[in-house]
Structures are given as C-alpha cells and as structure tokens.
Amino acid sequence: MDSNDSVDRFSFLPDALVLIIITCLPFKEAIRTSVLSKRWRHLWQSTRNIDLDENFFVKAGSSGEIRATQRRNFVAFLRFWTENYTEPTVKKYRFVFSNSPDFHLPAVQHCIKFAIDHRELTSLDLDFSDPDWDEEDISVNPQTPPHLPVTTLDRHTVLNSLRLSACNFRVPQSITFSGLKNVCLAWMKIPAGSSLYKFLSLCPSLETLILRRIWNVESFDIEAPNLKFLVLDKLSGPEFISVSAPSLSFFQYSGLSVYLQMEYNRTMTEAIFDFSLQPTWDEEGDPEMLYNLLSEVWSVKVLTVCSYMLQVVPMAENSLSLKPRLENLRRLVLKTQLHIQEYYGITFFLNSCPRLEILSIDIGPKKIFEDWRPPYGMREHPFSSNLWYPACVERTLKKIEVKGFKGDENEMTVLRYLLKYGKVLRHLHIGLSKERGTNGIDMESTYRENIQKLMAHISSPHLQVYVV
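RESULT FIELD:
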C-alpha cells in the first residue's frame, strides 16, 4: 500500500477552508466534527449555518420530568452558544422552541435578538408553535407566546428564505426584499393596520409562498410574476382572494369556502382544493364560483378535490362537464365518502377528464349536506342505470387506487361500474379500512370478501389486483 494513502489530508487544510466545509454540514453533523481531533474541537462553533432545535434535546414520549430536564439542558446549550459565538456573519439561522416557560425567557429573547441583529442572514426560521395545537379546529386561534419580542425585518434585505411560526411579526413598511424567494408564515395573527398584500408586494422575486393557520386576514390579492408554489391553508378572515401568478405550477387551498379567483396560466401542473371544513353551502354563489375556478386551472395534470366540491359543483349551470375540459389531466384524486350525493360530482369530473389515466379514491367520513338536491331531472343515477359511458373510463383509465375500502353498498356500486367499463385497466390497488366492527371486531376478512365479489365485474383482461 502506498504510504501516501494513510496521510490525513484534512490536517493540511487551513482553518478557513475547514470552516467552509463545516458550514456546509447540517448543524448536528457540524457539532460531531468536534471529536475528530483536538484541532477540530472548537471549529464547529464558528459555523455560519446555525440550527437551534429543542427536538435535538427533548425526545417525544419521555416522561414530563425527563422532558423538563432535557429542556433545561437545551437552554443551557443556548446560553453556551450565544456566549461563545464570535463570528461576525451568519448565513442560516433556525430556532425552534415551544411552550417556553417564563424562567427560560432571557435565553429565548437573546436568541431572537441574535437573529434580528444579524442583518446578513440569507435564511431565517423561527418556530414557537406548539406541536399539540389542533390544525383542523379553526374556531380556536392559539395565542402567540406574549413574552416574545416583535420580529422585525427592516434591515434584512438579503434574505432568500423566511419561515416564521407563532411569532409576533411586524410587516415592514418601506424596504424591498429583492432576493426573497421562499416565505412560510404560520400560526400567527396579522396585526391591525398590516396587510399580507403589503408584505407580498415587497417581495418581487417570490417563488414559494406558504400561509398556514393565519388569522385576522383581510381579503387580499397575490400578484407575483415569479411565484411557482403556493399553499393557502386554513386562513381566517378573508372573503376574497385573488391570485395572479403566471408562473405558478403548484397550488393548494384548504379551509373555509372563500371567493377564490385565479388568472389562467399554462404552467400549472397540480392543484388541490379542500373545502372540507365548510359547514354549509350557498346555492346562489358557491357552484358557479367553483366551476369558474376549475375553468382557470384546466392545464393541470394532477387534481385533488374534496367532498364539498363533489356535492356543490354539479349545481352550477351546464354542469354535465367542464368547459374547457381538463385535457391535460392524468391523475384525479377524490377525497370522498362515496355517498350517493357525491356521485354527480364524480361523473362531472370523469366527464371533464378525457385523458385520465389514474383515479385515486380516498374514502373517509365527510360532511354530507342535508339541504342538497339532485342537480339533474333524472330518477336514476348513471352509476346505477348503466346509461352513461365517460370516454376516459373505457379508453384511457389504466389505474385505480382505493384507500379505506370496506365494501358498503355505495362503494360497491361505484367500483362495479368502473371495473365493468374499464376496458384498458391495468392495475387496481385497494387499501383496506382500519375501522373495526361492533365491539372492536376485526373486519379485514369481511372487507376481503367484498373485494372478491367485485372480481366478477372485471372486463379488462390485463387487470392486476393488489390488496393491502
């Protein structure tokens, strides 16, 4: 063996180059370099990629006493870090700490001040949310920890990425974040006198925007020429949201029904619409709004819709299918109970997707509206009458995915139909429901028996069935 092979070449690297290497490592890995040699023992403390996360110290599932000790150790580490860090510049800074008691306040405030003082940051992530907060209960807005100082970014003009969760955030008034491309705001109240529109107008290069569980939100417009990824998740307050983003490729909306207006663009490939939290529906406005919304996203290749849309969209005028149809759509995901009131919406979407290849049916309990009425003057729905043959089922549908299958009457009606007319089907994946029967009886064998009853309706000679 060549003696040169055993040479420790890292020993010849200057500290400045070693520091660049350490800064490229995840924070935990950077700390571990301290055991490599005496020379490396303290070099990690100069990394410009800082990640102070209580989850590195506090382990889920531990007892309350052990967790309290682990949190004290984390706070001790925060004090050690802030007292010994001497580098003049920081590239990335992340600080995660939930439910911090008052006696930890000085350390927490110091860590926030550290972030605010380092104006050269390119990535900032502050998260004070509680993992136990209920994301689905929008009737309750948790209080941002009152002792946290206001996070102001008036001097952070070189930011590229910003993530703030459960922070007291003040919207800047005068500067422009010309390089800011990624923004995520979550679990916070928009202060009176501030607006999302004002903040977004200061970010001309924005490419990714995630707004999750924000309240006190006024109606707003999103005008972002470079925006590619947009998530609006359970916002409280707005009655109207307008999106003008000609480069948008992914869009997700979850929450209450709002008047959602989008300008058509040819770049969108996936859209998710989830209005499952909506308790009622407006017959006068909701059907037409949803129909028009779908018309603006007709370029998508993947579309996910909820039970609310399946029940409400067919109430729009000319709702046998969408015009223009979803010519590019290859995968349709239905979040459904497969209730008979959803049948009309399912037929609407199948009629609107002439080139559909994958149909995913995610079965679970949904809100079924009592004041709903059949949209067509028909006594019998096509799934039962066999008088309706959408082109995609016979010609292009190759794969069906089912989650939460039990085999009740409505499930069997829909799947029998799809198997009977799915002439080119290749794959059927069925995931069994985990729901147990009366007195906790395991129902798996019953669910599997129901699958066997479907086999007699298969028309495609090439279909393969997978059950999990």
